[in-house]
Amino acid sequence: MLSRLAPVARAAPSVAKRAFSVSATRAYNTEYRTSEKTQSLHNFSDEEIMLRDTVRKYAEEVIAPKVYEMDESEVMDKDVIQGLFDNGLMGIEIPEEYSGAGMSFTGAILAVEEISRVDPSVAVLVDVHNTLVNTVVRHHGSDAIKEKWLPGLATDTVGSFCLTEPAAGSDAFGLLTTAKEDGDHYILNGTKMWISNSGEAGTFLVFANVDPSKGYKGITCFAVSKDMGVEIAKKEQKLGIRASSTCVLNFDNIRVPKENIVGEVGKGYKIAIEILNEGRIGIAAQMIGLAQGAFEKALPYTYQRKQFGKAVGDFQGMGFQFADIATQIEAAKLMTYNAARLKEEGRVFTKEAAMAKYFASVVAQRAAGAAIEWCGGVGFTRDTGIEKFWRDSKIGAIYEGTSNIQLETIAKFLKKQYA
Questions:
Q1: Which residues are catalytic?
Q2: Main EC class of this protein (predicted)?
Q3: Which of 311, 280, 231 is nearest to 105 (CA)?
Q4: Is 160-265 CATH 1.10.287.130?
Q5: Which of the following CATH numbers is that of domain 46-158: 3.50.50.60, 3.10.50.40, 1.20.1250.20, 1.10.540.10?
Q6: Is the pTM of this model over 0.85?
Q7: Which neighbouring-strand residues pair with 232?
Q8: How far apart (Å, rounded) are the C-alpha atoms in residues 410 and 415?
Q9: CA–CA distance from 372 to each of 60, 123, 177, 375 (Å)?
């Protein structure tokens, strides 16, 4: 069982009850601090800690030696992907009955964070697969859908979430892909773009409109396998996360059985809204891991590099910068963990997810940019891998809702609260 966070507020004690003796107060505080009611945001279950440590070891020993080559070739190493499946990292929340690990959402967030410390490209593959694709199937799929698709997603088949189109970016419901009913099937036609994991995926969750006259209320989610005829078209050449495939997909008269509908006909927009809110926490996790990775790569060098008779990192001006960035990273972590726990508790978390995603992306760019400057000319070269963190950081302000979209979401909640 996952530990739960303490209530935000407690009833205020009366004046008489506040008149504790010093010893009684200490005893009360000790008991209260160690009870299940009081837990820090760094309080993880034994399973979550074990997962985090396992992922960290895998990332450092297996992924790290391949990061440079994958970035240069812009191709995800197949052995890395297989290793993710072998270590149970592609089915973290999938129940054991479907060959998954049956762990918590926070466990998935920790895994994304740890992988991002080494390579955000690999992290986004894990993130999209777990927090978007797997979650949609788990939460909205029928028993038959779960039995058909989840075992593969947990053990050997990469999943891709297909929502964005040329005319549907921030306005996600302006999509033009259609699904026309034809007996026991739907005929899929349209184009998707900016689709993560698409180069490696075997399973695609495709959002299409079954009745354009109804607008967004015609949007429906379909589970589609690559062998049905999905065309992987242009692969984008990107500034960062280059090993993560981002492609244009074409659907040309693809016949999809009605049994492949995930959720209800015309309810795809609700699925999309729900899952994008959750997915933003995953992107926040990617960004805090990235920031931590850049920080950890840069600092040792500053204490080895000497100028004017002492280590660069020993100058007060540098130390203050280290402290400032470390504080921002910690704040972003706590916001991300808090949003994850709120989601697990079934509480409203949309504002907190938007805040975490927005702030973590800002901190990631600051931390990665500062890390380059701390290392000077060495940081600017590709050999160290520090500059890669900066290139990878920029996407955090763009996908899963741009920073402006996050700010708009936060502002709407503030208006409800204060207007």
A1: 400
A2: oxidoreductase
A3: 280
A4: no
A5: 1.10.540.10
A6: yes
A7: 249
A8: 9
A9: 21, 22, 43, 5
